[in-house]
Amino acid sequence: MTGASEHSGFLAVDSGGSGLRAVVGTAERGPLARRTSGEPVRTGERGIDPEHFMARLVPLVGALTAEAGAVPLTTVVVGAAGLASLGEGLRAELPGALAREWGVRRVALAADAVTAYVGALGPHPGAVIAGGTGLIAVGTDLTGWRRADGWGHLLGDCGGGAWIGRAGLEAALRAHDGREDGSPRLLACAEEEFGPVAGLPGALYPRPDRPAVLASFAPRVAACADADPVAAGILRAAARHMADSAAAVCPSGGEPRVAVTGGLFKLGDPLLGPLEEELARRLPRARRVPAEGDPLHGSVRIATDLSAGSLTLPVDGRMLTVTTRSGD
Q1: pLDDT in tens, 119-148
Q2: In whole angstroms, how far apart are CA 108 and each of 53, 124, 176, 305, 316?
Q3: This model's pTM is above 0.90
Q4: Which residue of 162, 189, 206, 289 could cross-link 153, Cys pair, CB 3.0 to 4.6 Å?
């Protein structure tokens, strides 16, 4: 892509369940100011609400430009959780709203899996496993995007934080009942965390934040893994699920790069050890590399390239869309 101004400024945004994070900068000077807003954007009948998005963004950008100085915002990149399935309203209305507010001429809207990928690997072929409460894998050969899982805690997110926590609590309840494959150690942890486990269904099922509550038990599973074969088996199974998803999206040619990103991997060696083994088994040609940055870093990378007219990532109708207005 070509034709961008040499002195255009960009706004890069990461929108997720914990709110908005945003950076203002230029292609020449890089990021100049960074701010966070703690309120997440609402979802409605058309998915992510574009009016509420702008209401959250405008004061944030005001604070950013006050800090960064007079930066003409000609390019905006938004990485948003749920964009692939809930982004209809944003794709239809946000480019026009950004043009009216700041004269923005180029807008890229990306699924958070794409910004996680670009933050971790940059514009290189490979696969990224993004793990937190949920789990998704995304890959590209630089001609198109592929994703695997990310279907939520009832239908998928296999190997993610909620999945690990739920498996740990299931093992605790097995021990409580006297069934095989239960874990007395995880039972003790569950009762420390939640009280008597017989009350867990009534306490857990009605909660709207059920995935986060399940994921909160994942660190206890990891802490037990050294001494408890049941806990270690849960993490091994999680690693297999992750490797399966990575293998489903990883390009088949050359030596693709593979990285992991997200808070789930703070569980450390009890999860990362089995994952390294499973990735080596499933993707023997792939080159395992550390993630360079997070999803906001990915939004900044896309914004920098789009501002400079050097974006090489594949553009489609759902994972990554780019809108340009007259003059480019």
Answers
A1: 999 989 999 999 988 899 999 999 999 999
A2: 15, 19, 51, 11, 11
A3: no
A4: 162
